[in-house]
Amino acid sequence: MAFERIAIVGAGAWGTALANTLARAGRAVTLASRDPASAEQIARTRASPRLPGRMIEDRVAVAAASAALLSAQDAILLAVPAQQLRAVAGMIAPALAARGPAASVPVIACAKGIERGTHRFMTQVIAECVPTALPAILSGPSFAEEVARGLPAAVTLAAGDESLAAALARALGSATFRPYHSTDVRGAEIGGAAKNVLAIGAGIVAGRGLGASAAAALTTRGFAELFRFGRAMGARPETLTGLSGLGDLILTCSSAQSRNFSLGIALGKGQTPAHASAAGGLAEGAFTAAALVELAGEVGVEMPIATAVAAILDGSSSVDEAIENLLTRPFRAEG
After folding, report:
1. Which amino acids are annotated catalytic?
2. Distances in whole angstroms, Cα of residue 83 to Cα of each of 146, 191, 193, 301
3. pLDDT for the residue numbered 282
């Protein structure tokens, strides 16, 4: 399987970074904006509005998303926020349906989250909205600004069919952007979604000035929660301890480049959830927290750190109350 023509729907920071990366790898890549006016401006200036100072590679075509454009692609990446993915998947569905079931196109989710209300993961949303698509997920420890600059990064690319996953990894990969392929779709999605919520908790620890020891404890115990939840959902251990699980958790729990970590810092310093969210931009974990806790309850998995983060975000608990509740939990064996 060869994927030479690739469209990226979503001209934000991550979509732009991926477009630059794929262009350097020699692919015919189109960065498709959902807003025609924005597409025209980006095509004219070659400047990314979401990555200040970072120019879009000359080899990247920029256009408004359209049925004609999308129906001509070998693969489509959806680089849009998790809670917007259903609307965008629905938008591209008619173009792909027109090609017929014999010409199924991989549609790769690049968002890390769980849909609120439905508790659907991203590939499930794609499958529901685009029945003719071949759903896949791209996840792992990667900051858009670094990837756009061409700095090295390794990620997970998961699809249900191993040959498809391997072919997509080859198509998207380069010397500096290395996708490791997997068939554990759910494991890759769980790692990306849960780590965003836990990173908010890590940021709260940093913002409250609780120290490096507390930060290490939260990250470690947070990973234990992620692992328990993943196993209950059928994820493989090697996925949860790999790039899209532990790797991404380490990155987002330790750097202010993470919007989730930065949101947590603001909360730890006393800002309200509404003010902190408005000031720091989109943090996927803020939308995923409640859905993650609800889904964990459905499968009988206790996630005290994620639950504390969700309670702080919905205003049912203060930061100090959440910290006290965690610190006064009964002593138990590690596991």
Report:
1. 195
2. 24, 17, 12, 24
3. 84
